[in-house]
Amino acid sequence: MFNNYKYTVTERFMRYVQIDTQSDPLSKSFPSTEKQKDLGKLLVEELQAMGIKDAVMDEHGYVFATIPGNTDKSVPVICFCSHMDTSSDCSGKNVKPIIHQQYDGGDITLPEEGTVIKAAEHPYLQSKKGDDIITASGSTLLGADDKAGVAEIMDAAHFLLTHPEIKHGDIRILFTPDEEVGRGVEKLDMKRLGAQFGYTMDGGERGSLEEESFSADAAKIVIQGVSVHPGTAKDKLVSAIKIASEIVDALPKDGLSPETTEDRQGFIHPVRMQGIVEHAEIDFILRDFITAKLDDHAAFLRNIMNMVMARHPQASATLTITQQYRNMKEVLDLHPQVTANAEEAIRRAGVEPLRLIIRGGTDGSRLSFMGLPCPNIFTGEMALHSKYEYVSIQDMQKAVQTIVHLAQVWEERS
Fold first, then answer.
1. Do 391 and 148 contact (CB within 8 A), yes or no?
2. DSSP symbols for 166-197
């Protein structure tokens, strides 16, 4: 099927990553940065140039498009989704992608800031010997998370539109902003999307298929201290900054944190602290694969707060818990055909499916609970949110094949 096909995924990817789409976790607007729409506008133009007449970006920055079905069968409408924004953990401005042809299996020295991607620290990279590897130049992230997914969906759309012999039902394309700040589907109009099942293209190594994610809550502790001029502060001043530091210091040192857990172990993680003497705030994320355990983590954090505050009776503190997303497996277990069809598509692409769990979440985590059961499929993106990020061109091509085969599998099994 793909023997004589000239893939467009690499050219698209190289172009997309040079557009700065970094989101901002501190912004109150939606999308959190207007520059994300720069990529959205380009994608709409390219989709329309392919012949997709209904391609559009709405006021919130969501890109919608439809590849019309070409079969007489009644096939469920499926959606392929990727996010356009990049992480705020590392600069996404002036990304300069570099292709390393036929990677030799050793360290990759990048031209800026003395950055070296050490093969010994990236076992998956070592397995890519002979592949063509794309990296950034050493001073920024690459943006394969998730512009690899964006480029793969775009190339798959191009393939399906130029190969009408491949039978499929209606396919909806969705590109979202603000996934990296946990708000990717906050303003999404599900009725307008109009799909029954979906797949996020936002996974890592070749063949990986993820139907299980963290359940997630956010926690915020707000501390009210007592501010007094330091010259007359004896026995009067109570520093909210110092109380916040005591709370963070009281967290376990040997567990319940990202740096001390793995697999299905959950954690409590302080991600931001700010304040002055009179007022301080600490933001946490709570994570676990078992949703009920989030209440345990919240209770544990509350106990720490109360223990610390007992030493400072003149001060006060409140803890607020906000739901973020839930383990998508709770929904996907009710629709086993969604994952089964993805496994078949991956096999048809010549790859053995690899069931993994996500120690994090994707748009699919929330979409699943919004009525769109949505596992996550590999894109090849690796070493995310860092200057060491890389992606294999051959992995991206296999992801394109998987999307096409998946459209075909749904048609055949309907």
1. yes
2. S----EEEEEES-GGGT-TTTT--HHHH--SE
Element (H, E) at 119: none
- How far is residue 383's CA from residue 397's CA, in Å, rounded to a whole number? 19
In angstroms, the CA 313 to CA 198 distance is: 52
User: Distance between CA 34 and CA 177 in Å, rounded?
Assistant: 10
SS3 265: coil
Active centre residues (catalytic): 85, 179
What is the C-alpha separation between 373 and 338, in angstroms, rounded?
A: 8
At residue 53, φ and ψ (nearest 5 deg) are -70, -25
- Torsion sign, CA atoms 306, 360, 358, 362: positive
- Distance linking the first and last C-alpha atoms of the chain: 21
- Which tokens sit at 92? 């996404």
**Residue 384 and residue 344 in contact, taking contact as beta carbons nearer than 8 Å:** no
Amino acid at 256: L
For the record, the structure tokens of 81 come out as 């989704």
Bridge-based pairing of strands 78-83 and 197-203 is parallel
In angstroms, rounded to a whole number, what is the distance separating the alpha carbons of residues 61 and 177? 6
Instruction: Retrieve residue 301's tokens.
Output: 């954090």
Q: Please tell me the chain's helix, strand, coil percentages from 3-state DSSP, rounded to the nearest 5.
A: 30, 25, 45
* 387 contacts: CB under 8 Å, gap ≥ 6: 90, 110, 113, 115, 136, 138, 139, 140, 141
The model's pLDDT over 125-149, given as tens digits with 9 standing for 90+, comes to: 999 999 999 999 999 999 999 999 9
Per-residue pLDDT, averaged over 70-80, amounts to: 97
What does the alpha-carbon distance between residue 221 and residue 281 come to, in Å, rounded to a whole number?
6
Beta-carbon contacts of residue 10 (< 8 Å; ≥ 6 apart): 99, 134, 151, 393, 396
- At 179, the pLDDT band (50, 70, 90 cuts) reads very high
Residue 48 exposed, middle or buried by CB count within 10 Å (0-12, 13-18, 19+) = middle
